[in-house]
Amino acid sequence: MIRTVLFDLDGTILDTNELIIQSFLHALEGVTPEPVTREQIISNMGGALVDQMKFFSGREDVDDLVQKYRAYNISKHDELVKGFPYGNALGRPSTWGGHKQSAHDNRDGP
Length: 110
What we know:
This protein is of the alpha+beta class. The protein folds into two domains: 1-14 and 83-110, no CATH class; 17-80, DNA polymerase, domain 1, CATH 1.10.150. It is built from five helices and four strands; from the N terminus they run E-E-H-H-H-H-E-H-E. It has helices at 17-28, 38-43, 49-57, 63-80, 87-90, and strands at 4-8, 14-15, 82-83, 100-104. The strands form two sheets. It has a two-stranded parallel sheet with strand order 1-4. Helix 1 (17-28) packs antiparallel against helix 4 (63-80). The longest helix has 18 residues, at 63-80. The radius of gyration is 17 Å and the shape is elongated.
């Protein structure tokens, strides 16, 4: 029996791709010998932020890059995040037979 329907907020209900790409480009600007491209970022999206920063920068200590990423991400969130066309339908009680629903992200997680 289904009791709760759980949604991943980023990438399922909200299109955060451009925000993520722009945040990486901003944080990594001037850090790497060659500029990191959108294509490189897209092909590596989905991992933990710290791991991605280590991968792109070649550094072990990436605390400054993570802080720069997060500050930019927060400042540009409302401008760059868009809802997917079906996002509103997912949240309608009638869509899931009245089951409890929740949407989550791991912004403050790993």
